[in-house]
Amino acid sequence: WWIRRQPQLQGAIDYIRRTPSIRDVIISGGDPLTVDNDGLEWILANLRSIPHLEVIRFGTRFPVVLPQRIDEGFTRICDKYGPVWLNTHFNHPNEITPEAGRATRELLRAGVPVNNQCVLLRGINDSVETQLKLSHELMKIRVRPYYLFHADDVRGTEHLRTPVETGIKIIEGMRGHTSGLAVPTFVVDVPGGGGKIPLMPNYLISMTEDEMVLRNYEGLVFRYRNPRPVSAKPKSSSGRKKANNGSNGHSNGNGHSNGKGHSANGSGQPVRIVLGSGNQGLTPRLQRRQTALVNAHPKVPADVQPLTGNGSATNGHS
Questions:
Q1: Local confidence band at 295 (pLDDT 50, 70, 90 cut-offs)
Q2: What's the rounded Cα separation, in Å, for the pair 33 and 74?
Q3: pTM score, two decimals?
Q4: Secondary structure element (H or E) that encloses residue 98, with its range
């Protein structure tokens, strides 16, 4: 093992074992498939012996660049220690070869779902046509288009980076023109540990307590009634019941929280085992473009005010 030695990996595995809140582990690198099958089986066997660990994921580009690495031995251990998921990186439809299709087919036969994480690259795949073609070819080999990444700010790669609004325009050009399953989520992986932030076209024109005004992929504008929360039941005259009603904290009577705090590891982020060393909305330019689209459309109601970039309507309603 020329990447990480067993004592280093054992330390990571021991940490996961004594941290019950961790339910999801990503094995990445470098590329973890540079480790031989015996080494990978040692890792998977140790991870799968941890009772609270539910999901194991590989992050690898080998199905693209060396699909022959997806051999019978690798698929056997994935099946043995599943559920195992695999995320790979097809960046252009020309990378989807018959050999790559065979590799993903063998993974699926072993019960390994395959997702694709594409990086947006200037002059290579930064058009709606190329991204649609990529997604359609991925669907043919049963790979789900998962993420479209804005390229990270890495020294020496500025010539490959696109403006952020390029990715938003690509998603806008895909949505409604292919099945929803073929549209990836466009994300910016912000530095400093901020994680992946999804960005998408602004389909919400305005919103009040009573209704929303929405536009679809064709630019058509629609009013949509905004359902109100179920009001709290009238309080009983009984002092005991009144006290109970006041203590349960549920104004809508459904007894459910908003979902916060249900993450198994607190932050909701998976733990990553690395085998190798290694504005709130739209940009001002895109705001102007979408505002112009809304204002120019003949079916926009006269009393509707477009949202500003921070998600609040200019008519004062949030």
A1: very low
A2: 9
A3: 0.73
A4: helix 98-109
